[in-house]
Amino acid sequence: MAEISVTIFQREDRPFWYMQYRDPVTDRKVRKCTGKKTRRDAERAAANWEKDLREGRFVINGRMGWAEFRSKYETAAGGLAPNTQKRIEGVLNVLERIIAPKTVGRLTRETLDTYAVKLRDDGRSESTIKSHLAHIRAALSWGVERGYLYSVPKMPKLQRAKTRKAMRGRPITTEEFERMLAKVPDVIRTPNLGRTKKKPPTDWKRVPGWEHLLTGLWWSGLRIGEALDLSWDDESHLLVELSYQRPMLRIPAEKEKGHKDRLLPIAPEFAAFLLETPKSKRRGFVFDPRPMLERDGRLRKQQVERTIAAIGEAANVVVDQAMRKDPETGEKRTVNRTATAHDLRRSFGLRWAGRVMPQILMELMRHETIDTTMRYYVGRNAEATAEVLYAALEPAPVAGTQMGTQCAPRIGKSRHDDCHESSGKVGVQ
Asked: Residue 240 gets which letter from DSSP?
């Protein structure tokens, strides 16, 4: 690094002293407030800054190599939750693929604008783009704190969705869920390795555990990762707690975003489902769907997600439509999204949204904030809400009335025609 000399100066309209040096590469002056009001303190601050610059603690103008910056940041993020670390890794991988920055200073407002546009062209939703930019901003803010950058560039402004949808899928119906269960044998099967010459080569045997998993997801509202981690007896995993009056769910601190042990209630239907398991078999993982080939061992989350998605596709349970780019022609076309494991969770949430208050539903769904509960589940089913409103005006006995009825409003009539009148009072005598 070239020799750097930091000097101090004072502005007439400011109480603090400032320090500056000339960038040996760009020949531009770099200024910074010392936060000191006396010359002596300002000189000390300038000397410390000059020492840090000369020893390489601060990289001028973001010229630290991107690979080095990413390595340092991911090391610093090692204390975050595993899922957050995976998310950071995924975002930075996409950033490298689209922008390919050689230095951290390459991430300017213009390049980030390009990044957002590319994500949008690839069919990413605005919420996904917002999440990507938030992770990038967090990384750059960390770099500013450590002197690798002078400032965080302004993030691109997101487009307002014209027809914004909270959910990418939708809750599925009971009939659709039963169709998915019926398709399990068709999707998940393995060759019968014990067949003989007398048995046809099309003989297959069923793979156990998949109907049990789907039914558990339907009644529990668990995320797929939570369901696969649920254990009967291992406290290092999500644990079925049966020592209380009602079955509960215990989440260890290392599995929780807030890094605290949590004891949460579970739905009565799921509790009854769990208690159907004989006591002698309540050990190990609650859900352990077997692979199609025994040598594969216990399946990973991504493998189970893909398999359940294949079941939804085989059952033709369409939950949404999306725009996808044709890999051959590059043209966008509309494709159907079929049911996934998360749509079973959505069904659970919608069922309970009409039964309990939002605060209870938030705890049952294990949402971080009430805003998530309100956005995704409360008030979404307009048809069900309309039924509740009209049911409230169904004829019902009214104390002190001779007729004993209240009338529902009739379209096209005046408000006084909506109910029987007697003695100048509406609906009463």
From this structure: E
CA distance linking residue 292 with residue 311, whole number of Å? 14
DSSP output for 6-48: -EEEE-TT-SSEEEEEE-TTT--EEEEE---SSHHHHHHHHHH
pLDDT band at 419 (very low <50, low <70, confident <90, very high): very low
Closest listed residue to residue 180, CA positions, set 365, 302, 352, 343: 343
Can you tell me the distance from the alpha carbon of 231 to that of 375, in angstroms, rounded to the nearest whole number?
31
User: Tokens standing for 80?
Assistant: 């975050």
Per-residue burial over 352-382, b if 16 or more Cβ lie within 10 Å, else e, is bbeeeeeeebbebbbbeeeeebbebbbebee
What tokens does 27 get? Answer: 């020949």
Helix H or strand E segment including 332: strand 332-338
Enter the tokens of residue 226: 């939570």
Q: Rounded distance, CA 189 to CA 412, Å?
A: 60
Q: Cα–Cα distance between 236 and 255 in angstroms, integer?
A: 9
**DSSP notation for 219-278:** HH---HHHHHHEESS-TTSEEEE-SSSS-EEEE-GGGSTTSS-EEEE--HHHHHHHHTS-
Q: Which amino acid is at 146?
A: R
Q: What is the separation, in whole angstroms, between the first and last Cα of the chain?
A: 96
Please tell me the pTM assigned to this model: 0.61
Distance CA 320, CA 311 (A): 16
Judge whether 408 and 390 are in contact, CB under 8 Å. Answer: yes
- Nearest in space to 351 (alpha carbons), one of 312, 380, 310: 380
Alpha helices in 224-298 (DSSP H): 224-229, 268-275
CB 315 within 8 A of CB 143: no
**Sign of the four-CA dihedral 26, 28, 34, 35:** negative
Tokens 């998949």 label which residue? 210
User: Between the CA atoms of 126, 130, 131 and 134, what dihedral angle is there, to the nearest 10 degrees?
Assistant: 170
Identity of the amino acid at 250: R
Radius of gyration of the chain (CA): 31
Q: At 368, is the secondary structure helix, strand, or coil?
A: coil
- Which residue type is seen at 380? R
Tens of pLDDT, residue by residue over 162-208, are 444 556 778 999 999 999 999 998 888 755 545 444 544 444 556 67
Determine the Cα–Cα distance for residues 296 and 116; give it in Å rounded to an integer.
39
- Going by C-alpha positions, the residue among 65, 55, 87, 58 that lies closest to residue 74 is 87
Burial of 425 (0-12, 13-18, 19+ CB in 10 A): exposed
d(CA 419, CA 421): 6
